[in-house]
Amino acid sequence: MDRVALRGLRARGHHGVFPKEREEGQTFIVDLVLGLDTRPAAADDDLAKTVHYGIVAEEVVAVVEGEPVNLIETLAEQIAQTCLKHDGVREVEVCVHKPDAPITVPFDDVTVTIIRSRA
User: Fold this and answer.
1) Contacts of 71 (CB under 8 A, 6+ apart)
2) Is 98 marked active-site?
3) What is the DSSP-derived secondary structure letter of residue 21?
4) How many helices (H) and strands (E) does the chain have?
5) Alpha-carbon distance 33 to 59, whole Å?
6) Coil, strand, or helix at residue 88?
7) How many whole angstroms separate alpha carbon 64 and alpha carbon 119?
8) pLDDT per residue over 31-75, tens digit each?
9) What digits encode the pLDDT tens for the residues 72-87?
10) In angstroms, rounded to a whole number, what is the distance separating the alpha carbons of residues 91 and 108?
11) DSSP-assigned states of every residue in 39-80
12) Distances from the Cα of 26 to the Cα of 22, 61, 90, 97, 103, angstroms
C-alpha cells in the first residue's frame, strides 16, 4: 500500500473536558498518513484516480473547527472516518496533537495516534 502524508494541519477547536477549553478553544495539529494504491493515478497521471489531499485537508480542518468533543481520541476517530469516506483511501493513520493541553507540569506535546482501515 502506498502512502500520502499530510503533516502539521492546524486548526482552532473547542475540544476538551474543562470549561476553559470549551470557551477559549486552542490550536490542534493533525498529522495524517493515507494508505492507498497510487499506481492507477501514476499510470494515467490522473488526479481523479488518487486522493485529492487538498480536499482531505479542508475536511479535516472542518472537523477540528466543528462540533466540540471531550476527548482527542474522539476527535481522531471522527477525522479517520472523514478520511475513509474517500474511495481510494483504504487505511488512515491519524495523530492529533494538543500542544496546549491543560497539564500542570512542563511538557512539549500531547498526542493520540490511531490507525483505521476499511472493514
Assistant:
1) 15, 17
2) yes
3) H
4) 4, 4
5) 15
6) coil
7) 25
8) 999 999 999 999 999 999 999 999 999 999 999 999 999 999 999
9) 999 999 999 999 999 9
10) 28
11) HHHHHHT-GGGS--HHHHHHHHHHHHHSS--S-HHHHHHHHH
12) 9, 13, 31, 11, 14
Write out the three cell numbers for 41.
493515478
| CA distance from start to end of the chain | 16
Q: Which of 20, 49, 85, 98 is catalytic?
A: 98
Task: Identify residue 77 by its one-letter amino acid code.
Answer: E
Separation of alpha carbons 59 and 65, rounded Å: 10
pTM for the model stands at 0.96
